[in-house]
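Following up on my earlier thread - several people asked me to post the actual chain instead of describing it. Fair enough. Here it is, all 301 residues.
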Amino acid sequence: MNTNKLHTNEVDIDVSLVSRLVSMQFSKWANLPIRSVEFDGHDNRTFHLGEHMLVRLPSSAKYAQQVEKEHKWLPKLAPFLPLPIPVPLAMGVPADGYPWHWSVYQWLEGEIATIERIVDLQQFAITLAQFLVALQQIDTTYGPVPGAHNFFRGGSLTVYDRETRQAIIDLNNKIDVEAVTVLWEEAIATTWQNSPVWVHGDVSAGNLLVKDGKLSAVIDFGSSAIGDPACDLSIAWTLFSGESRQAFRAALSVDDTTWARGRGWTLWKALITLAKSCELDLPEEVKRSQRIIDEVLGEKN
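Reply from S.P.:
Thanks for posting it. Predicted structure:
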């Protein structure tokens, strides 16, 4: 499946472009080999730079603001976290037709998280929860508030109310409309009543690294902000289930209303992805989105 069909208006970024940018701006690394990574995301394009670094470039304007945010905040967050996170080494500037700032990071060892690579999913869930608890305890002074720069992660779910309801209408013959609507309305009926906390903003399997079967690092803080931690709960339904989901929630000590908003964040993303995937005839993505929706509804029922 080519999930890139889900993302349009992106800039063409290849090894040749990256090589030119590095040579022009960081001559000390000009002779290092550059190659594509095995798993590449949609928001950014990532390349190996030598053996111990990577180059990461936003793929479109809507991700460009995240570069400077990561360079500012990642070094401040890292000392307080129990697992490695990306280490910025240098920030590139627009050049050679590439219009945004870009980054050089230290390479973190590990593979993208999959069920098959995880030795003990329940312990993995607990370790991730402990990481998020530590993140939430970091001082939020002057931290970035939710907004367009991170797609309002950590903010109010009501931002996506119209989009979600339209997706429900579009999918009326493919989902349990009544059940989904009930869960969505439960999610947007509550708000975070406590002080804002740090949120990662995109806790997905693609941003979790595994080494020797265990969680070894958390990457991609482009959607980070301070606010409501409910947006970081989606992994409970996209990767975990049963005992691992219960272990994740228990280790986080999440109350019912925050858990409900977590379901809401999960539903929003799964619904809009399912609607787009049906439109573009992407059967594997359709299957994946439907499975996530079923996980959310199954837990509630």
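The CA atoms of residues 22 and 174 lie 47 Å apart. That should answer part of your original question.
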